[in-house]
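job 3f2a | input accepted
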Amino acid sequence: MIQPTCKPDVDQAARRVQAWWAGESLGRPAVLCRRRRAEAPPPPADDRPAGQREMDPRWHLAEAEWRLDAHAFPAETMPGVYPYFAHNLMVPAALAGARLHYRPETTWMEEVPDLYDRPLPAPADDDPVLEMLSESLRLMGERLGDRGLLSAPPLLDGLTTLSMLRGPERLCLDLIERPRDAARWARRLDEIAVEAHRRLFAVIEGFGHAQTITWADVYAPGRCEMVQCDFAIMLSPEMFERFVMPYLRTMTAYMDRSCYHLDGTPQTRFLDQLCSLPALHAIQWNPEPPAAPPLEWLDFFAEVRRRGRSLWIACDADTAVALTEALGPDGLMLSVPHLAGDEEVETLLKRLTHASGG
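job 3f2a | predicted structure (358 res):
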């Protein structure tokens, strides 16, 4: 494993996270608590439009350097960097030729009403977005050395991508009126994503990196993805089986580790299907506001653990301790933001160790 200079305890942190992937623990839950340093420099200035600067590998390098300089990585938080393109949402869409629209807080794409009348997009080795991402990773590998852990950028599932290309309401009708067209486009978008990941992961392997730091800050040895289908909140279990499970089977089989980004509490209805995936290791709890707080979902969390999947839960420090007391430390990853400094981090880790019986 690469030894990043900005996190001397990386080996110990990696062991704790690998225990979490295996549904175990090393005396307490794994903890993520990335924080901005008080003395952090401002982000690199660049007056170009977002769509222009994000096609410049030198901008991605500057952003990666800033993320390593501006943040602390305590506990199991890892110093990972990757090209941050289109708010981590649009890589497959861009590779399929979508026209992107940048907004201050997100990136969207132009809807294509006649999409199904067009030929399916094909992965292209000379695609400008793929070339830019590859060159960005090469620059990071050459310039950053062993300062941080290099990763391939996150992907988005084909059905959610398709919901932006067609529009969510139109896609809901498509799944009833044109299910074959919707399925073949979603499948092709997934194929494009997997092929892009193969190429980009090969770039970081060339620099001695063979790990992933996901957008959720989770470390994994080898290939990993926060697999998801945000559009699934609109689906019945039967439609989930037809339109989402093929993607999940393909992606979890391709990845060495995978965690399902359960986006919205209505997706709890898919737990049986998610747990039928032999290569799905974990589930990330991501409730919609104003859903009930985590301590009101203990029965669901206990069922996830009973079925052998690990849990990722974001919460405050007091809730983290209560969850540990209720569920035990095994297979529990707690993301606790807004800790002010090293002293607060150490206090939380001691409380969690005590709550774990240590």
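job 3f2a | The mean pLDDT is 95.
job 3f2a | closed
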